[in-house]
Amino acid sequence: MSFGLLNGKRGIISGALDEASIAWKVALKAHEEGARFTLTNAPIAMRMGAIKNLAEQCGAEIIPADATEVGELEKLFTQSQEVLGGPIDFVLHSIGMSTNIRKNREYGDLNYEWYLKALDVSALSLHKMLQTAEKLDAIAEGGSVVALSYIAAQRSFPDYTDMAQAKAMLESIARSYGYRYGKKKGVRVNTVSQSPTRTTAGTGISGFDAFFEYANRMSPLGNATAEECADYVVTLFSDLTKKVTMQNLYHDGGFSSVGISAEIVELLEKKG
Ligand SMILES: NC(=O)c1ccc[n+]([C@@H]2O[C@H](COP(=O)([O-])OP(=O)(O)OC[C@H]3O[C@@H](n4cnc5c(N)ncnc54)[C@H](O)[C@@H]3O)[C@@H](O)[C@H]2O)c1
Q: Which residues line the pocket of ligand 1, CB cutoff 6 A?
């Protein structure tokens, strides 16, 4: 069901790699809610080609950009405004990558070049997007920027390694830039801390199935799906959340507020 929440709005959606991507679902939802937007991803991700199907479904243009390259982000914001015919109302940052995780490196055996790369791709890229947008004055008054995070920013999860610091940094950038951009142009900046979700980035983490199931049994509402995340993100892009900014918003079925659930207790009692 469409509510027309984003009628007349222009956006930029990053990170749609394939149908499982959270950004893919956000794009479909934003389209359904009446938005027009451009799609972007790292040039290397384009080779897989799936994004073209999404672009067709949404009537969107694809503008490749490596989110760590300021020059490419300048092109992204400039061309998006040209294609869409005006300033941008919403931006989705849905970007994460850690080579240490991909290569199963333990927290006590991290490669520091990869560590810095993970921070650059997964966190600093949000700052680069915001600073580029501000310098180009590319985001409209009252616009909304959302980045996706994970609760490993607050709590330790052994296999999340350097991405835990990336997410802590991402959330901190959202607060600091949220203050600046809010004062300057009423632009909101928030992070949405999402449940474990079966995507390329998600399932790349070793032990993913176990902690997906653990989170599901801990959360009174169960894990939030990518589609449900898209529903939430769309409200944050809409005019219904005009005074929400500088927040890390949990979208996790209640996981972040639970100490232990009856289900986990029962499971451990059975084992004991
Ligand atoms: N899947 C989960 O369990 C989960 C949970 C909480 C938060 N998140 C976050 O959600 C976001 C989206 O991830 P996803 O789970 O949809 O997985 P995904 O693999 O579908 O998306 C990650 C995207 O990042 C893009 N990317 C990587 N390097 C890039 C670069 N240099 N420039 C531009 N784009 C680049 C990839 O091409 C890909 O499209 C990430 O920030 C992720 O950390 C995921």
A: 14-15, 17, 21-23, 41-42, 45, 66-68, 94-97, 121, 148-150, 194, 196-197, 199-202
